[in-house]
Write a structure and sequence with these properties.
The protein is mainly alpha-helical and 150 residues long. The protein is 50% helix and 5% strand. Strand 1 and strand 2 form a beta hairpin.
Length: 150
């Protein structure tokens, strides 16, 4: 199983914004700190803002920040926003399955159970939970944040 880079970067973005909250950051600042291409990050920010996880504002004091209820979202919810089709194998996506074994294979049940167990663990933690110790981050990351002068 592998999360897409969009999901990975989304989670990193949310953790970074949680670390600097209530301050806002620009996409350029985030891109420099997390070393993500600005264009890719722009798409992620747009997607998360559309799903009401981020607030965005333009202008001199503009930037991006976490929405008020972002801290209450479980990690599973955040992953589902970035990975709307979390089918581990083709047969878990019934609408797009061309597998000859579909409906007659024991693997479908196993993969369904595995996916459920994965999300069960991630349903137990919220973004707020993983940000409780937001001051405990790598010195390298802290230096990058400082150099981008928030």
């Amino acid at each position: 199983m592998h999360l897409t880079s969009q999901t990975d970067y989304s989670l990193r973005l949310l953790m970074l914004l949680g670390m600097v909250a209530p301050n806002k950051m620009t996409i350029s600042q985030v891109a420099a700190i997390l070393r993500i291409k600005r264009n890719h990050l722009t798409k992620i920010v747009h997607h998360l803002a559309k799903n009401e996880i981020l607030h965005t504002s333009r202008g001199k004091s503009g930037g991006i920040s976490l929405s008020e209820d972002a801290h209450e979202k479980t990690i599973a919810e955040l992953i589902r926003i970035s990975e709307p089709n979390f089918s581990l194998v083709e047969c878990l996506d019934r609408g797009n399955c061309a597998c000859e074994f579909a409906g007659y294979c024991e693997l479908t049940g196993l993969f369904t159970s595995a996916r459920s167990a994965f999300f069960d663990v991630l349903n137990d933690k919220t973004l707020g939970d993983i940000l409780k110790n937001k001051n405990q981050s790598s010195p390298l990351l802290k230096n990058r944040i400082i150099s981008e002068s928030l």
